[in-house]
Each structure stands twice: as structure tokens, then as C-alpha cells.
Amino acid sequence: MDLIPYSRQSIIKEDISMIEKVMESDFLTQGPKVPEFEEQLKNYFNVEYAVACSSGTSALHIAYAGIGINQKSLGIVPAITFAATANALRYEGANVQFCDVEPETGLISIESLEECLAKVPEEQLEQKNLIAPVSFAGSVPDLKSCRKLADKKNFFTVEDASHSPGAWYENKSGERTYSLSGVDTHASTLSFHPVKHLCCGEGGALLTNHSEIANKAENLRSHGIHRPNNETDERPWFYEQINLGWNYRLTDIQAALGISQIKRLDHFLEKRRHLAEKYETILNQEPFSNFIRTPEFHEGNAWHLYIIQFLDKELRDAAYKFFKQNNILTQVHYIPVYKHPYYRNLMGEIKLPGAEKYFERCLSIPLFPDLTEEKQKRVIHTLEKFLSHK
Questions:
Q1: Does the pLDDT value for residue 171 go beyond 90?
Q2: Which of 137, 150, 188, 192 could form a disulfide with 161, with the two C-beta atoms 3.0–4.6 Å apart?
Q3: Which residues pair with 302 in a beta bridge?
């Protein structure tokens, strides 16, 4: 039987052709393709500024640094996320506080966030601080409430939107809030890792409507170097380093792949939603419904991951092993960040009930645009076979 991964990139001949053209050009990096890709990102997501960089992690780092996060800052991060959301704060020496998530969705708990903010000392409020809500698995948290709470305490908001390009949610009055809209956050970040919606091999981007954040981030992305207008300057070779930045540049090769991929983003979203709808229809019936809970299905979910939750937490690890024995790869998204040894050593023992409950029951089953109907049926049949012995 062929191996079925939990996710993978979708590459077609047009993608390869775009890369080949760059390989035959004068520029493999720092050429015209990166600004072209940034224009595509700005147009698609309707934001003023896009700063492409080397990874989703570097996007978070330049976003935080662009805001001015430093050793005196505090960043509040949901416990269920990839560690990079918190790590990028630590790169700047900032303190991290983890808040709880909703156990049904893994999204940031507004109640827990409010409690965290209420405990922030008055002297801390004089510093530059931020909240990093995470749009998780394709679903968008309540960004409006996050921003409202943040504004009360003069916190910045940076959405880690690596899972959610094209996602939105609708409140009770029918009003929609879009991930990456730039309205409810100061900045949002994307990842172009192969399992994400857009693949550049690696890469990321900061999206914002704030020129100060974008300009600082763009400078930091390339060693903190500033180049004057070389066409009119008497010394066109001149440049100067004004900040201690990093080499976080995206290459033209990667940008060319991104330009090709973004043309198919709507198609990717449609395919992901179709596959999720099929899972939803079948897995909410018996015998599945006796053992698992499916994610909430709504039209605005971008379906980066399809995460089922076992009603009996003892079944999760057994299911992971059973799938693997049948040549199907699944994954756990995520171990609460505070459980990692680095953060445990830094912060001591922490337990958040929502994050604990979500973590011990969750399993991501295969979902990606090129997953065929036949292979999805195999995933479902394997799960049914596993549950039939329980």
C-alpha cells in the first residue's frame, strides 16, 4: 500500500516551469521575484504591506521586533500552537505567558486571556507588550475580542496565521472577521512550509497595514542594512547598517514558486473544504460518533488540518500506531508549548485544563489538496477498522 502522509505539498508543471525560469535568469536571490511575490500577497489579502522572509518563524520574529518587543516586554501566547509563536518572543528576550485554549477547538480562550491580562502588573503596562492569537488548523479565533482586550491594556496584537490564509468567522449578527484582514491585529504572519496552503519549500511573510512595523521588519530581514536611493546618490555603492538584523531573506527561487502557488490558493481552499465536508458527513455517523468528536464545520474554515478528538483519551495513541501500521501517517497538533523542557525549565510546571484536554485527545488525519477520493476512503476505512475492535 502507498504511504498516505497527513499532509504534503501540491506541485504541478507550472510551478516547476516558474522555478526553471528563475534558474536560467541572472538572479537566484535578491532579484525581482521577491517584490513581485509581495505584491501578489498584498493584493490577495488586501493589506498595505507584505514583507516576505525565510520562514514562518522569521516572519514572527521580524513582526515582534518590528513592533519593538524587547527584554522588558511580555507576550501572551495560547498554549496550543507550534513553539515558534513563543520562541520568537524569547529571541528578543521577552517574557512569555501562556493562556488557555478552548478544549473543543484549540483556539485561544477569551476568558483565559482576560484573566491573564488582569494579572499583568501596572509597571509592566508601561512596556511594549503583545498578544499573539493563533488561527489554528484553519479556524480563526475571536480576533475582535482579542484586539478589544489588548487595546484596554495597550498591548499589540500579532496573529500567527500560518494555518489560516483565506479563513474567516461569523459572529451572531452575521458579521465576518477575516484572518489576515489587518483590521483586528497590528500584523499577521504566514508560513510557506510545504504542508501549508502555499508552498515555497520554506518561507514566510509578515502582513500589516502599519508602515512603521513593515519598514522596521523589512530592514531587520536583511542584516539591518539601509541603502539610499542609489540612482541619485553620488556614491551608488553606499549602504549602512542601522540595526542589528538577520539574514531572513527569501530567495527568488522560493518567491517564484510562491507566485505560481498563490494563483491556485482558491482552488486549494476549495479542495480542502470538499475533503473536510466528506469527513464531516461520514465521521458524524455511527460507529465513529460513538468514539470521536469531529471539528466544527463552518464555511469559513481554511482546513489546514482535520483534527479529530477521541472521547476516550486512551484511544489516541493506539489509533496513531494503528494508522502507521497501515501505512497512514497522522500527527498530534500540538503538545502544549509549556510542556517542552525549555519552557518547563524556564517557567516551572504549568497545567492549563483546556490545553491539557485538547492535547490528550487530538489526532490530525490526512488532509491536503491532492488527497484522492480513494485514499480518503482508505483513511476512513482504517479508522473504522480500528474502532471496531474497541
A1: no
A2: 188
A3: none
